[in-house]
Amino acid sequence: MTTLKRAATMLALVMAISTLNFAAAEEGKLNQPPEGFKALFNGKDLTGWKGLVGSPKTRATMSPEKLAEEQEKADQEMRDHWEIVDGIIVFDGKGKSLCTAKDYKNFEMLVDWKIKKDGDSGIYLRGSPQVQIWDPAVKAANGVGSGGLYNNQKNPSKPLVTADNPVGEWNTFRIKMIGDKVTIWLNDTLVTDNVTLENYWERDKPIYETGQIELQNHGNTLYFRNVFIKELE
Predict the structure, then answer these.
(1) What is the Cα 155 distance to its own chain's centre?
(2) Over the stretch 131-151, which tens digit does the pLDDT of each residue have?
(3) For 7-21, what is each residue's pLDDT tens digit?
(4) Residue 88: enclosing H or E segment and its boundaries?
(5) Could you give the C-alpha distances from 36 to 22, 28, 110, 196, 217, in angstroms and in order?
(6) How many angstroms separate the CA atoms of 31 and 25, rounded?
(7) Rounded-to-integer distance, Cα 55 and Cα 57, Å
(8) Which residue ranges make up each domain of the chain?
């Protein structure tokens, strides 16, 4: 091997090692909260999460014993259909939504999500639907992107613009909720600006003052990572 070829081979080897080291460093940052935020997902298991039992309205009617019984069943179903793969929450398209074990009032939330073609999902705030996630090409979306408050009837339900990355790529939500007002950025683009989130379960009442956050099941494969929250006064 000539000196020139040997040098070129060594350079290629060094570049390959550098690329692997960079990838490892980036992977190490996965699920590490930015300053001021706490991780809702530890990157390893579903600690801090639970299965879905009914709705806020139906749960409120259950006795503590009945709620505990139903929660045990829901948690088993959660474990059957939600799993962790390489630091990513993966849903197999069956079962019910994944819920935080803790309730939240005012907060700022960061979450990465990814769907497949024709995917449809969402994020419930205080147990109520929802910040919409879907493929803008799906028939129901009719070209409208993610990040709108889909179930609103009196207040805006659609995002200001379509800011979704191509299906199969990661997207990032920044969701801020204070009182009944919700502001959402999708991939650093403002898509919902201080809009009232209506109470889907009890239309004659305002949104609940506190409640769980849910990653919604809609019968398709879903991916979530980097789920962070900062509680606000």
Answers:
(1) 23
(2) 999 999 998 899 999 999 999
(3) 444 544 434 434 333
(4) strand 88-91
(5) 25, 19, 12, 25, 29
(6) 13
(7) 5
(8) 1-30, 38-231
How many Cβ atoms from other residues are within 10 Å of residue 165's Cβ?
13
pLDDT value at residue 217: 87
Domain 38-231 in CATH 2.60.120.560: yes
Nearest to 104 by CA among 78, 130, 124: 124
The burial of 228, by beta-carbon neighbours within 10 Å (0-12 exposed, 13-18 middle, 19 or more buried), is given as buried
The whole-angstrom separation of Cα 28 and Cα 83 is: 20
* pTM for the structure as a whole: 0.86
The backbone torsions φ and ψ at residue 104, rounded to the nearest 5 degrees and listed phi first, read -130, 150
Q: Say how far apart CA 179 and CA 206 lie, in whole Å.
A: 10
CB 158 within 8 A of CB 174: no
N residues, the chain: 233
Q: Residue type at 100?
A: T
Could you give the CA distance from residue 165 to residue 12 in angstroms, rounded to a whole number? 32
Give the type of residue at 62.
M
